[in-house]
Automatic annotation (TrEMBL):
A GO MF term: peptidyl-prolyl cis-trans isomerase activity
Chain coiled-coil ranges: none
Protein name: Trigger factor
GO biological process, any: protein unfolding
InterPro entries: Trig_fac (IPR005215), Trigger_fac_C_sf (IPR037041), Trigger_fac_ribosome-bd_bac (IPR008881), Trigger_fac_ribosome-bd_sf (IPR036611), Trigger_fact/SurA_dom_sf (IPR027304)
EC number from the UniProt entry: 5.2.1.8
Amino acid sequence: MEVKENRTDDLNIELTLSITKEDYADKKKKRLNDYRRKAEIKGFRKGMVPMSLVERIYGQSALVDSVNDAISESLNKYIDDNKLRVMGEPLPAEEQPQVEWVDGNDFTFKFDIALTPEIDIQLSKDDQIPYYNINVTEEAKKEMKENLLKQYGSLEDGEAAKEDDFIIADFEQGDMKVEGTYVALRNVDAEVRPSFVGLKPGESIDVDVNKAFTNETDRASLLKVKKEELAGIEPVFKMTVKSVKTFKSAELNQDTYDKIFGEGNVKSEEEFDKKIADRLTAEYAQESEFRFSKDARDFLLAKANVALPEKFLKRWITVTNEGKFTQEEIDREFPGFLNDFRWQMVRGYLAGKYEVKVEESDMFAAAKSFAAYQFAMYGLANVPDEQLESYAKSVLANDKEKGRIYEQVEEQKVLNAVRADVTLKNKKISVEKFRDLK
């Protein structure tokens, strides 16, 4: 076995493997003996098939498999012996010597190998990363207060429909009658909506449902039919309003305070307003941290300036995902892949440099925070701790979610270490300008 190395640049190597009969003969003989021992061929007892027949039936596949085994062993040995830090896996070179699969022949194969680039990041207080402190304005507090009271409000009977109200109506056309349909005015097409505004119980108008409800799924639900049936229905219906439902915000009282912030935690509007300010402060602090993570990541990627063997990586992705994605999809997503790949390498380097360790307790705490966030998305802000812990355990039982949380915790620890070594350039900013940042 002979291996020749051609280093085409700092990150790419072409290996030429020359394989002789001596490199694969014993492997082929062993494979044929295994075939003979297991073969069940009519007219012969198991294990007693003549080797000449085994050779005739299995010889070619045994030759190919044995040569491939020799290639794999040779590649792995060369990589280990030369302490090469490879990216992905070796790929057969696009231009290969012609192969004649004849027993006893010598074979030559070429492989492309990509090397992992060296990373060296030195940080000091001269390095500055922006950190945005978001101002909690009176307008923002007022907006959150109104939204919370709306969230915990209720539907009540109204007189005339407003743009954010609901109506309960009957739709009638000839023999077809649909009774008691809920219609949210916000879901009515903007051009048609004015004809709905101001309607009172008992009033009727003609409605072209195709124009008023352009979404076919919504229209089918409204008329209580299947989507396939819509094409056969004349679109103009007489709509009669049975009742108007208007959304009334919750009142500022103890019952509302208890529902939003937990029993007994708030006892006056003043305390209610303070809780809102505290929640906004916490939310903005979290948004500031998210932004810092992005800015720190961008800063570190620029400082590391990691060069990658892009041509090799694109071909590696294409080969290893054959049939899963089109070339167009790979080309479109490739820049994002490269950016994520670079960050993965930089994060790994920094985790080693700062001796970052992710403990089980870190994982569990992160899973609980994720659980609390999930519940909050559904308006559940005061979930009992035991319920959060149960949810966290179920999250960590999922290998994919566990891996995601591990990366999240490791990244946060890396960024905390980076934060201590650089200078944070504090900037005060309004929430409006913060949201305009790119």
